[in-house]
């Protein structure tokens, strides 16, 4: 039965999209890593708690298929702040977050990093 569970998780990983805008923070990427870690031996991996494994799979399928979004439809596609889904995606993109992090740096630190001959990683050594 472990082989069947392994194949179901693999199929879910194939269907789950990877968002390039969320490098190192993507749920699809995290899912693939967790499945690879949990099923190290592939189809021959012994499963300690099959019921928990099945429950996890069913929960992930509900997230992937937007079960609750369809079950409880929203009246508007905005939040209480008036921000749309596309605006949220843009704000949460890794590049935008990096730019915001750079903006938080003080002027002295930015100048030091800009004109420093060493890379910032070398400063911490």
Automatic annotation (TrEMBL):
Keywords: Mitochondrion, Mitochondrion nucleoid, Transit peptide. InterPro entries: UQCC2 (IPR037698). It is found in: Mitochondrion matrix, Mitochondrion nucleoid. Pfam families: UQCC2_CBP6. This is Mitochondrial nucleoid factor 1. It comes from Willisornis vidua. The gene is UQCC2.
């Amino acid at each position: 039965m472990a082989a069947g569970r392994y194949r179901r998780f693999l199929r879910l990983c194939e269907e789950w999209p990877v968002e390039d805008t969320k490098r190192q923070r993507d749920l699809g990427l995290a899912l693939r890593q967790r499945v690879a870690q949990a099923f190290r031996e592939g189809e021959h991996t012994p499963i300690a708690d099959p019921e928990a494994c099945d429950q996890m799979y069913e929960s992930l399928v509900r997230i992937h298929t937007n079960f609750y979004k369809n079950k409880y439809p929203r009246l508007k596609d905005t939040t209480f702040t008036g921000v749309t889904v596309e605006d949220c995606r843009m704000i949460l993109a890794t590049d935008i977050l990096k730019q915001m992090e750079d903006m938080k740096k003080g002027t002295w630190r930015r100048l030091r990093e800009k004109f420093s001959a060493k890379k910032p990683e070398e400063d911490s050594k």
